[in-house]
Amino acid sequence: MKKLIYLIILIFSLCNFQEACGEESSAEELKTLREEMKNLSQQIQALNEKVESQQEKIQALEKNNQQPMPEVIPPSPSTPASVWTGSFKQGLQAFNPEIGVVADVLVAISESKEDAEGNNKISVRELELVFAHDIDPYARFDSTLTLSDFEDPTIEEAYVTYWGLPFELKGRVGRMRPKVGKASALHRDALETIDEPWVVQNYFGVEGLFRTGLELSWFIPFPWDVVTHDLTVGIMEGGIGEDGTLFGETRRRPSFYSHLKNFVDISDVTNLEVGGTYLLGSSDEDSEYEVHAFGIDVTLIHYMDALHRLKVLSEFYFQNRDEAFASSEKASAEETLGEEGEALLPESFEENPWGFYTLVDYRLSQRWSLGGRFDYVIPTDIALDSPDEADIVGSAYLTFHQSEFARWRLQYQHVEFADGSDDNRIFLQGTVAVGVHKHQLQ
To answer: In CATH, what is the architecture of 99-435?
Structure first.
């Protein structure tokens, strides 16, 4: 069809040429017409070759599209993995969990002669193995297994998160870090200091609080959007973390907690978060709930520019143990008598212990930051005749952020214990994260 069109154009041109020749024209005009006809013939030839080339490409593409898709045959038990098709491997990859590893290596030097965990030695304080994956569009599973060179393996977290619950609730069930305050709910790699604040160590446990329970969170839909509010309530198994003194050791008596977070952007470069915490639990093995704990946390962050940032964080906790103190005093009066028959009051019990810490962290540059922390804690089990009322701790640290996957931190700490002794400590920490890990290094 295209060739016929070109032939008609050529005949038409020849006719015009003959018509022009029939007229009285000069030799110059005849020469010009011949050159134009020659150019036109060359253009037609080039167009014809281009059309034929494109037609061949179209036919080749149509031929490929008509070929059937290769069938993916699942490998038999005797089929080696190396011969599986790439598409089959990619399909299986979607079912593999997200895996990450976080290593925390610590050098600790102390004046204390006590052979404590990690004291005056290099140790792998913590090795976290993280496994997580989406179950379906409505739920996700997260787990953290912790290994150490001086502790037994521990399941730190293993919980399922649910979205889309009635009333726009979000739920978690399993072993987890309850949303209590700020520091206790964070993993060690997310802290600004090498160790947890002393009020957290003394009341909740050396590594913070993680228990098995059920938790519900609700973003409160108030009509204003200047301040946002997030309410969390939960129930968890009884007891407390390692060396914690807030509750007793009985796990079968559950504890309750709640936390209200309020967040506001003061300006484009400054934001403020204020939270309130309440915990209720038992101090012994009976069915009474004698311990009430109240907490307040305040976090202020100000950005000077993209690289410089100032963070101020403080937490305060107060315990009401009046009921536990009364029951302990009654038990002592009934079971333990002095030489003359008088009741002996418990020596290692504080009725209303409280404590707080304040931390200031300044980001000097993209890779360097420094800061300090002050702790003041009245221990729950302080003896009434102790020379001092509280543990007082001062810490200063310098952090080198090698990248978002590696960090080095040097920290000095001076401690004045409530029993009158003191200690000076130097820590050097290296933290490395590989693979998928939801708690990115700060």
So the answer is: Beta Barrel (2.40)
